[in-house]
Amino acid sequence: MSHELKSAQVPLDNSTDLPLWTGDFYNEGTGSSDIFDTLKEECGVFGVFGHSEAASLSYYGLHALQHRGEESCGICVADGKEFNYHRGMGLVKEVFDKDIMATLVGDVSIGHVRYATSGDSRLANAQPLVFKYRDGNLAIATNGNIVNAPQIRRELEEGGSIFQTTSDTEVVAHLIARSSKDVVEAAKDALQRIVGGFAFLIMTNDKLLVASDPHGLRPITMGRLGNSYIFASETCALEVIGAELIRDIQPGELLILDEDGLKEDRFTEPQRKALCAMEYIYFARPDSDLNGSNLHASRKRMGSRMALEAFVDADMVTGVPDSSISAAIGYAEQTGIPYELGLIKNKYTGRTFIQPSQELREQGVKMKLSAVRRVVEGQRVVMIDDSIVRGTTSRRIVNLLREAGATEVHVRITSPPFKNPCFYGIDTPNREDFIAHNKTIDEICQEINADSLAFLSPEGLIGAIGGDNANDHNGGLCLACFNNEYPTTLDFGGEEKGGCGC
């Protein structure tokens, strides 16, 4: 498939179908109107049990998980009697300083980095959420989304509960606080009531509870540092503090840590394993491991399989930084076509108060990416990317390469076409806004101004990831965003809500 679109004929992207952002920053979490058409990170959690420097370990762990959420962060520490905590808007290095860290004394801690969807980026929703209840202090941090939170929230409000946040996490806190049982049994009852994808860290004055949803949709791992236990959304956060990986927390599992040590329990029987496929494709850092599979190696295999499924003769291969670099290397190695740094990411875009004109907004991708003219000029380029959501950013990047002199741009996507929203913790558009929901692959190719376009098959994705669950249904993955096969019931009670509800 080839489209005769010459570089000189490529118009500037002057579409007006995307509204201008309305937040204080041009690139803050703004849901469907974000200038960069990419899936938004989930959240990240980090926990420590039994270490005198629990807060400092959490700081470094959260810093390693910063890619999972840049809107807000927080750390809560228990010293056996009281909680000490601090939360703030912004990056970990911005929210915490030496003086604040000195106040976070204790040997048990939980921490959180958060990505917020539009309207929810405020301090009240920053985690860990901290509460006073009849048995003392309670703090909760989670990554994920509770599908039936609206119904439970209405029920609790009718029973007199007063909510302070719009976070799903507060629903679980109220369920625990209203129970007459001890905190472990109350947590089990609460976790049995909720439906969705989640990884919870629940802390009291003398206990730390760790839980994973029945399908294991959201990742969480356990490590050891000396005699201390460490918990993190990704193994890269264990590595940064020198902790040894023990294992992944299993679906439906509940770990209880207290003065008696670690007790392995569960709040429900495990359902079919369905870890979010986008963790492998896009979200997790390449130096992390999930279910026995390294992310960099998995992404290289995705690129290699992509080359076998959709080879195209070209002069160079380049990847869209950062998540597609590994796949681009795999594609290049499989085909023998040289890999080049045709696109460079500006790591220091940060957040800016400047809201430029519509014309400059349409060129806004250049604040994030630059094409290397001396590398791509006169070349037939294979551009590897991890996904296409609405197609706007893909079109801008293709045009960026063409403006830098690329004679052909062939796009290869190392995931199947995105067609369905996520209800388990990823901020995705409505179904109708996915370009693959409304257009054929040929039509998408024309829309993004590429010479050819191909997506990785579901079978290719499952085979490339491999890992400990390779023989399970769908390779132990949730592929709902591709095949509409959701692992849980989706009873929203008339209030369908995707994205991250934490």
UniProtKB/TrEMBL annotation:
Matching PROSITE patterns: GATASE_TYPE_2
Cofactor stoichiometry and binding remark: Binds 1 Mg(2+) ion per subunit.
Pathway stated in the Swiss-Prot or TrEMBL entry: Purine metabolism; IMP biosynthesis via de novo pathway; N(1)-(5-phospho-D-ribosyl)glycinamide from 5-phospho-alpha-D-ribose 1-diphosphate: step 1/2
Catalytic reaction list: 5-phospho-beta-D-ribosylamine + L-glutamate + diphosphate = 5-phospho-alpha-D-ribose 1-diphosphate + L-glutamine + H2O
Binding sites annotated in the UniProt record for [4Fe-4S] cluster: C276, C422, C478, C481
GO BP: any one term: purine nucleobase biosynthetic process
GO MF, one example: magnesium ion binding
Full protein name: Amidophosphoribosyltransferase
Organism: Paenibacillus crassostreae
